[in-house]
Amino acid sequence: VHQNGSWGCFCNLSVLPEELGQPRAVAESFVNALHPGDLSTVQWIESPLVIEHDEKNLCNVHYSSLNFRDVMLATGKLSRDALPGDLAFQECVLGIEFAGFLWEVPEKWSLAEAATVPVAYGTAYYALLVRGRMRKGETVLIHAGSGGVGQA
User: Fold this and answer.
1) Residue 71: how many CB atoms within 10 A of its CB?
2) For residue 149, is pLDDT > 70?
3) Which of 40, 69, 74, 81 is the most buried (most CB within 10 A)?
4) How do 2-3 and 6-7 pair as beta strands?
5) Where does the pLDDT of residue 33 fall: very low under 50, low under 70, confident under 90, or very high at 90 and above?
6) H/E run at residue 6
7) What's the mean per-residue pLDDT of the chain?
8) What is the CA radius of gyration of the chain?
9) Across the chain, how many H-helices and E-strands are there?
10) What pTM was computed for the model?
11) What does the longest C-alpha to C-alpha distance in the chain come to?
12) Which residues, including other chains, have CB under 8 Å from residue 136's CB and lie 6 or more apart?
């Protein structure tokens, strides 16, 4: 690889868990792919708390999940340009689904289970009812019904 006037190469290095050191608790973090296109580089990254808006809108996240869009972004099959608004310019674009103290979770659900619901069901609702204007008595073909949105 020739970059900035120097020759070199890209290579994969094995990092053993003991080389990573002991896990430690941090106040704020996010998950991201360090190299889009390489799922092995998805990792937690410590970050400072940055409040850009009203502090009352903060919530405590207990569980977060990755969805198909996150996998497509992390593998480089979906460009950040496809993200709405200014989301493409944010450092953290993976794992926007979460469970915490934002809305009530049914008593029989764990927070881990609840984290898998928002984007899939929100997408299905938006596609069928808001954009598709689906009404009682109409039918829809669910293509690829094995994924989260298809099931929703």
Assistant:
1) 15
2) yes
3) 74
4) antiparallel
5) confident
6) strand 6-7
7) 77
8) 19
9) 4, 6
10) 0.54
11) 65
12) none
